[in-house]
Amino acid sequence: MLRTAFAAIALAAAGSAGAIQSKYNLAPPVTAIARDIHWLHWMMLIICGVIFVAVFGVMFYSIWAHRKSKGAQPADFHESTKVEVVWTVIPFLIVIGMALPATKTVVAMKDTTNADLTIKVTGYQWKWGYDYLKGEGEGISFLSTLSTPREQIEGKAPKSNTYLIEVDNELVVPVGKKVRVITTANDVIHAWYVPAFGVKQDAIPGFVRDTWFRAEKIGTYRGQCAELCGRDHAFMPIVVRVVSQEDYTKWVAEKKTAMAAAADDPNKPWTLAELQERGAKVYAANCQACHQANGQGVKGAFPPLDGSAVVMNTPQQIAIMLNGKGAMPSWKGLSDVELAAVATYVKNAWGNKSGAVVEPAEFKAARK
Amino acid sequence: MSAVTPDRIAGHAHDEHAHDHPHGWRRWLYATNHKDIGTMYLWFSFTMFLVGGVLALGIRTELFQPGLQVFAPEFFNQLTTMHGVIMVFGAIMPAFVGFANWMIPLQIGAPDMAFARMNNFSFWLLPPAALLIVASFFVPGGATAAGWTLYAPLTVQMGPGMDLAIFALHIMGASSIMGSINIITTILNMRAPGMTLMKMPMFCWTWLITAYLLLAVMPVLAGAITMTLTDRHFGTSFFNAAGGGDPVMYQHIFWFFGHPEVYIMILPAFGIISQIVPVFARKPLFGYASMVYATASIAILSFIVWAHHMFTTGMPVTGQLFFMYATMLIAVPTGVKIFNWLATMWKGSMTFETPMLFAVGFIFVFTMGGFTGLILAMAPIDIQVQDTYYVVAHFHYVLVAGSLFALFGGTYYWLPKWTGHMYDEKLGKWHFWLSMIFFNITFFPMHFLGLAGMPRRYADYPMQFADFNMIVSIGAFGFGLSQLLFLYIVVKTIKGGPKAAPNYFDAKDGGLEWTVPSPAPFHTFETPPVVK
Question: Potential cystine with B279: which of A62, A117, B312, B507 (Cβ 3.0-4.6 Å)?
Answer without folding.
Answer: B507
